């Protein structure tokens, strides 16, 4: 919004009225700025994975006397955010009075009121069914391809073959042609907690399938897609992890910020408490309430970045991930770091590594994850509740420096959620160099903003 100086013509209105006009317009500009800032924070957009989403595809494979049979496929196209145990929960609202006659590879959590039916009783009569995956090991006649994994779906960047889930549903009291079928609405997805927002179902070109001998193509009778995107802002008010820092050139260890993950309404237990020996204390709760080890940061996960060695042409970093939750093991965990020297990773010793290049011209982000059957399971809090690796990086002599915290990461994500980093003025610094106080910087910025506002008003 531009400040319209012509509306404050001195010949038409008084100076006092002009200032009132400017005050009003300035308030509107601040309001619009704050609104845009808050809206962008809530938006489901990840700059390190700009195209990441979960796409839910419905393929109608046959018509029935009163409806259709559809295969529902969930594709996780997120590079480093997976759905861990206890798995996904999918919900929607029927457009008419549809019922679910049967399901293969999944089940609804409630049947609902089916009292008006005689003989064949539907699997679910609820207007808003809630569907969950079946557990591994169910009988073969209840399975289809990519089902029955307890709702666990891997990230696309970590394991594309395991980033798919599926089930089959037989729908009754519904349309029996492409023109009479009404698409479900109000899709919801928990993965396993909140954070996902799903758009409306949209009809797309029918999916084509290849026969096992690859000599014939068939296609779905009708297909529609639902796209769900994740927002950490919607998932939780507080971060779920934090970062601590250290280096070989400074004895100071920069801890996670105090109360980095929030300290209010959190129960914790000391690491030497006798309660930890009580049977069942580590058993997960239905509401996934954590049992955290008492720390100053109160985060379930801490990532420690240690600048370990400095060679002539290389430098070495040690990364350690520690679990402080006594009730949760992290399966298929992922760690994403952003640092300008990740474009020259020479070797990662105990983790698997994959560069992430969301923008082709910038290669400064990488994903670390556990080696299968070795350290892809991060155990609950305790002596075994950590994984670690070292990373060897080749120097770019034009950019490499140990000054001003350059050797520390710009961003860190664990399981797709951004971790809180310490304030830059607390980073370990080289001897004989002192960091610039953040208080001084804040004061300068505040004074500059106030000066600009005064200049505009006067």
TrEMBL record:
<comment type="similarity">
    <text>Belongs to the COBRA family.</text>
</comment>
<keyword id="KW-0812">Transmembrane</keyword>
<feature type="transmembrane region" description="Helical">
    <location>
        <begin position="436"/>
        <end position="457"/>
    </location>
</feature>
<feature type="transmembrane region" description="Helical">
    <location>
        <begin position="26"/>
        <end position="45"/>
    </location>
</feature>
<feature type="domain" description="COBRA C-terminal">
    <location>
        <begin position="240"/>
        <end position="428"/>
    </location>
</feature>
<dbReference type="GO" id="GO:0005886">
    <property type="term" value="C:plasma membrane"/>
</dbReference>
<keyword id="KW-0732">Signal</keyword>
<keyword id="KW-0325">Glycoprotein</keyword>
<dbReference type="GO" id="GO:0052324">
    <property type="term" value="P:plant-type cell wall cellulose biosynthetic process"/>
</dbReference>
<keyword id="KW-1133">Transmembrane helix</keyword>
<protein>
    <recommendedName>
        <fullName>COBRA-like protein</fullName>
    </recommendedName>
</protein>
<keyword id="KW-0472">Membrane</keyword>
<dbReference type="Pfam" id="PF04833">
    <property type="entry name" value="COBRA"/>
</dbReference>
<dbReference type="GO" id="GO:0010215">
    <property type="term" value="P:cellulose microfibril organization"/>
</dbReference>
<dbReference type="InterPro" id="IPR056900">
    <property type="entry name" value="COB_C"/>
</dbReference>
<dbReference type="Pfam" id="PF25079">
    <property type="entry name" value="COB_C"/>
</dbReference>
<dbReference type="InterPro" id="IPR006918">
    <property type="entry name" value="COBRA_pln"/>
</dbReference>
